[in-house]
Amino acid sequence: MTEHEHVRVAVIGSGFGGLGAAVRLRREGVTDFVVLERADSVGGTWRDNSYPGCACDVPSHLYSFSFAPHPDWPRTFSGQEHIRAYLEHVADVFHLRPHIRFDSEVMRMVWDAERLCWDIEISGGRRLSADVVVSATGPLSDPKIPDIPGLDSFPGKVFHSARWDHDLDLRGKRVAVVGTGASAIQIVPAIQPQVGRLTLFQRTPPWVMPRVDRAITGAERALHRALPFTGQARRGLLWGIRELQVSAFTKHPDRLGFVEQLAKRNMGRAVKDPALRTKLTPDYRIGCKRILLSSEYYPALARPNVDVVASGLQAVRGSTLVAADGTETEADVIVFGTGFHVTDMPIAERVVGAEGRTLAEVWKGGMEALRGASAAGFPNWMTIIGPNTGLGNSSMILMIESQLNYLADFVRQLDVLGGRAALDARPSAVGAWNRRVQERMKRTVWNTGGCTSWYLDANGRNTTIWPGTTSEFRRATRRVDITEYEVIRVKKAANKAAETTANRAAEKAAETTAETTAETTAETTAETTGTKDEVSA
Questions:
Q1: Residue 472 burial class via C-beta count within 10 angstroms: exposed 0-12, middle 13-18, buried 19 and up
Q2: Quick one: where's region Disordered (predicted)?
């Protein structure tokens, strides 16, 4: 990358979101773009998470791009190595590598109101400017390790599941695993046979259903290669089943009681000790936290070299780990499976918008973005997997592709405007969208299920999950409504910074309850009468 290079679009990240954006830009005829990747290879979270047992809990044929079907998935639920290989394949097939800048971490990006572009500072002192920025860093990219008193004094190895130390031999060691999320329930059965002692610190037990995984036969793969529509049908079936499940999560959480009974039976088959079963039984409605899939987790916990501490890790005193309930355990290794910075993404601290404030400052009261993509005060900036675009029961690739549709139309709108122009989401539009989302969120299992999850931010607000079907989201992001944006031209850019604060204050004051009610009613009517989209494969 040359000094002070300028491109039309800069994409940040090369996981599913970043590579998908790159493919979509090329298909729209945009070739003047770069993909900035802080690591030395593509893959995003599927590159970083290489811990033992790492695999996806979404079926393989649904966890891939519709425009890049993969008939040769080896298993119904793919392992990390297979998904990473798929992403490498996408980068090659769609000729994306010339656009990718590896070892290029974005340190800071600032909106230039006079030039109508983003000035981007990259690791190594390099600089770049771009008309449009697409942030595809993803919510599962920056590990979170809790602040445990005395952790620095621990004499052994300490690492997060997303930064696995593959040089460390765990054979015979006393290993403590902190956390019981999606990563931990895969790590525990994978390392249990080789460690001397395994202690699981469980602050909250998860609901776990069987993971019906199997090898996909050679005949099946040959069929999908010869007759691609069979793979499309398989994908469509998997999608349809999950769409039918959504109402139980979003409108009728009481119907999930039957699923809880299935989960308890799954536990009972493997865990015969009543005391252990009590420890492992959640006290909240299933679905409030993500339902985890594993057929090996419970059997591993029942093994004689495993202890379950039904409490979080509170302090470390040398090699002694102290739980919140006072339980003390000796360990040689600590593995944190404690999740990621989701509602407080570090990238937000590096984005400085039109008013001179960082995205983190603007989002201090909670993340919100128009249709999960555009934040007010950040012109020509879009995020993939933004606020309230997460899913609790289906494939995030479906949501990513919907946001790629929105990105494509965003670029088209800029072309229609012509000349030097930018689009900045109106605060009124962002507010209206967010109010509708939060109103629908009130009766979902994620808000009423009685748990504390990573879906909620520091203020207790669910800024992570989409409270509807993937079809609804696809309809909502099919195209850009230009009236939801302020069009910025070069001739008014010089006055933009001075006028922005006053204009937005006046606009916010002018919003009325009647307007909000009308918007909510219109949205409800659209959802009721809208026809269901088919997901292409």
A1: buried
A2: 496-537
* Pair (174, 318) in one structural domain: yes
What is the per-residue pLDDT across 326-360, written as a single tens digit (0 to 9) for each? 999 999 999 999 999 999 999 999 999 999 999 99
User: Domain of 68: which CATH number?
Assistant: 3.50.50.60
Quick one: how far is CA 454 from the chain centroid?
A: 11
Question: What's residue 516's pLDDT?
Answer: 44
Shared domain for 269 and 375, answered yes or no, is no
φ and ψ at residue 367, rounded to 5 degrees? -70, 140
Could you give the CA distance from residue 518 to residue 443 in angstroms, rounded to a whole number?
A: 21
pTM of the model: 0.90
Q: How many CB atoms lie within 10 A of CB 295?
A: 16
Q: What is the pLDDT of residues 92-137, one digit of tens each?
A: 999 999 999 999 999 999 999 999 999 999 999 999 999 999 999 9
Distance CA 91, CA 100 (A): 9
Q: How, if at all, do strands 320-323 and 313-317 pair?
A: antiparallel
Contact 32, 126 (CB under 8 A): no
Query: How confident is the model over 432-452, as a mean pLDDT?
Result: 97
First CA to last CA distance, the chain? 36
For residues 13 and 11, give the distance between their C-alpha atoms in angstroms, rounded to a whole number. 6
The strand pairing partners of 130, in sequence order, are: 7, 118
Nearest to 306 by CA among 395, 416, 199: 199
286, 309, 336 - which closes a domain = 336
- Residue 291: inside a domain, yes or no? yes
Helix axes 80-93, 16-27, angle to 10 degrees: 20
Beta strands in 106-235 (DSSP E): 106-112, 117-122, 126-135, 157-160, 174-178, 197-201, 208-209
Number of domains in the chain: 2
Q: Cα–Cα distance between 147 and 142 in angstroms, integer?
A: 15
Residue 169 confidence class, pLDDT cut points 50, 70, 90: very high
Look at residue 159 and give its three-state secondary structure.
Answer: strand
Structure tokens at 500: 């922005």
Please give the residue range of the domain that contains residue 289. 151-206+255-336
Is residue 145 classed as helix, strand or coil in its secondary structure?
Answer: coil
CA distances from 305 to 52, 173, 198, 323, 380 (A): 18, 11, 6, 19, 55
Residue 20 included in any domain: yes
φ, ψ for residue 357, nearest 5 deg: -105, 150
